[in-house]
Amino acid sequence: MSAHEATHENGLELGHQFEDINQQVESYTVGMWIFLVTEVMFFGGLFAAFIVYHSLYPDAFFIAHKKLNPWLGGLNTVILLTSSLTMALCVRSAMLNRWKEQMAYLFATMACAFGFLVVKYFEYGEKIEHHLFPGPHYQFPGDNGEHTEMFFNLYFAMTGLHGVHVVIGILIMIGIAIRTWNMRRVRQDFIPVELTGLYWHFVDIVWIFLFPLLYLIGK
Amino acid sequence: MQLHVVSAKTYVLVWFVLIILTVITVWIAEFDFGKLNTVVAMSVAGLKAFLVASIFMGLKYSSGLTKVWAVTGIIFLIIMFGLTMGDYVSRWFTVQGW
Q1: 32-71 in B: which are within 8 Å (CB) of A?
Q2: Which of A203, B5, B16, B70, CA to CA, is 20 to 30 A from B48?
Q3: Using CB atoms within 10 A of its CB, is residue B36 exposed (0-12), middle (13-18) or buried (19+)?
């Protein structure tokens, strides 16, 4: 086997620490999943806090969640699910080495992510305007606002942390787009796109749970 | 190398099912199941997450090791929620008021 064949398999670059391309792909994928498990625990702490405080103050959480607009939350759910679809198709194009198609899906995903943030911006703005942001200016309308501030503490912490993940996702996708453009004339390793996809679907899954948890609390 | 390329049709179908499940989530929130409200809402969300993980994230076509790690995440989450809630529901003193 020549040196050239040893470092390239199926046109993909093989790291010298790996036996073959299958082992390389497997290592990267498992590594990403381990990272996602730490992310699950990261968000899990906030979910646990929400479950505890919801069980302590169910009435306060119910009246507080009425201040959220479930239609905007639902719209954002549809936007993120659609972005997951375009991301899955983007990874597929990367596997098939169709860089133009891959770019189109990448930009569609970024557009959805940006749309999500725009909706979130209007939601946050409306809450802050109505003094529902926790802190010295917090004021719940009516005289039954006891413990409602805790709901908004958790609302802003959870959606805020999720929003930061969306922003990071957009930045990674910009990096992937630049890389795709630079490598458009050669066969690309699809792994960076695949791992970005895994991260993005994880962000989608977090929102899948956040939406009913925050916006659709039952009495 | 064995690459598992899923057809675009499958992805679009999964997306469609996810949208339908979102509509169902909003719809069933109108009904009152008493204490089961959260359980019902989270079950539908869990089904959606399962679809995203297995098809979009390709867990269905992944190696056993990858699946083990995905399940590990769920198990550790259950341990954390279980121990936390086990503490709160079994306290003899009232925690209201702090």
Answers
A1: 32-33, 37-38, 41-42, 44-45, 48-49, 52-53, 55-57, 62-63, 65-66, 69-70
A2: B5
A3: exposed
